[in-house]
Amino acid sequence: xxxxLPIADLPVNVFLVLGMGLAVGFISGMFGIxxxxxxxxxxxxxxxxxxxxxxxxxxxxxxxxxxGAITYWRxxxxxxxxxxMLLSAGIIGTACGVWLFxxxxxxxxxxxxxxxxxxxxxxxxxxxxxHESVRAELRARKGMPATLRRPGSHNWVHGLPLKMRFKRSKxxxxxxxxxxxxxxxxxxxxxxGIxxxxxxxxxxxYFLRVPTATVIGxxxxxxxxxxxxxxxxxxxxxxxxxxxxxLILMVGGVIGAQFGARTGQRMRGERLRLLLGLLVFxxxxxxxYALVVQPDDLFSIRHVGVx
Amino acid sequence: xxRALLIAMLLTLSAACAGPAAAERxxxxxxxxxxLVTSSFVGEDLVLFGTIEPDEGRxxxxxxxxxxxxxxxxxxxxxxxxKERVLGIWVNVDAREFVRVPAYLAILSDxxxxxxxxxxxxxxxxxxxxxxxxxxxxGPDIADTVRDDPFRAAFVRLQQQYxxxxxxxxxxxxxxxxxxxxxxxxxxxxxxxxxxxxVKLFSGGEMIARTDTALEVIKAGFEQYVAEAARDHGFFxxxxxxxxxxxxxxxxxxVFRRD
Lengths: 307, 259
Prior knowledge:
By secondary structure, chain A is mostly helical. Chain A has ten helices and five strands. Chain A starts with a strand and ends with a strand.
């Protein structure tokens, strides 16, 4: 069944888009990530212009993280205080990111910059996650206790001043790394058009020692707020949010996210991190492949404007 | 049935206005002057019908007619970029801007255009994809280049792949020696706006008559409503879309609640 998208200006198959929403929603619910780094390339692949894809995906991410956040809220697996602290710095990061984006756009190499950033970020983060979770898995096999969260274990992050207590996550850390992480996520999210969940989850685990139980819910509420405001900003400035496309993606996304969240909670933390690491690493390799291999057509057309 | 009716109507029409004409005249009619883009739009095939009114003053009416129809869509500025390998990765190294070129361009004729007239005439009348003016920004100037310029060739090739540029030497069918029918295919990815249809009649390698008509592609109903809301009330449109995301997210969590 074909439906014509009013902003993207082309017809798409409803079931194909719905299926893409379901698949990405499942992954997003399972790992507590927005899934923007998967959805945007998929939409571009079926012929939607990158600008419309990036703008419309934000509302899809908002919907899937909303349903996920409510599910975790009911299970009391969500740290609102921590999310608000991250958000306060995230807004400043987003503003700086938007400013840099506008600066880079004047040069003709924005696509390349985004491609290179994706490759570096995804392969690095994915590789680190695989390495860490394989080590944890091996230790568990040998019958050694998991070293990830020992009571009383501290790293340099915990020596910083301005300490705050986050009751729900049962952590007592300095506000400085919390703001730092919030800023980085907001900044990267604005430049690359992603929610940043796949970066936020490992950062919260490794730097702040947030327990696996609350990390996903917290990441989801943060993603929900940033992506809902990003939708409004994109719609108000670029007029590129396709509500029809977003609606189809959302319906698939929320259903997928429900099943994903259940599957994710039944799995062990290390196993989950290994899977997410593999996924992130694979997408990173895909971007690297696109940069290195000779494209089918060396020429491409970019639409500058009507008239 | 409708086609037969249309032809009959055109024939009576042409008979009615047949006065003392100095040369052949063209009478054309499009099957649809207003293409509506609705939620089920997957492109549309238009039909242009027409007749050639014979030249009354000629003792021996001509029979060797050729017809070239040029459909020019709304103008758009596009950049064609070329990739090259730099330090192992493929980078856009060079780009040309095509300034206000048609977003849709169809050249439809009854036989290949280079058999209809000599290259000089074709170039002067801009007949064929090779002869149509596609101005590029070259430094401070805006000019068309030679047709085998790599950027121009790539641009035309890519637009042809998208179905937006096309040249067909078999799209015009003569039903009788003076009545013709032209299929105008509009793909699903056409831009909304005004489309000019230019009809040229050739005989013996010379253009002997010319006429034009137009059509418009517009969004209608729900599509029009959404597009206008997004353009004119961006902030509220964004708020509504965000709210829609929240409601759908909340709704799913209620529907799927298990405890």
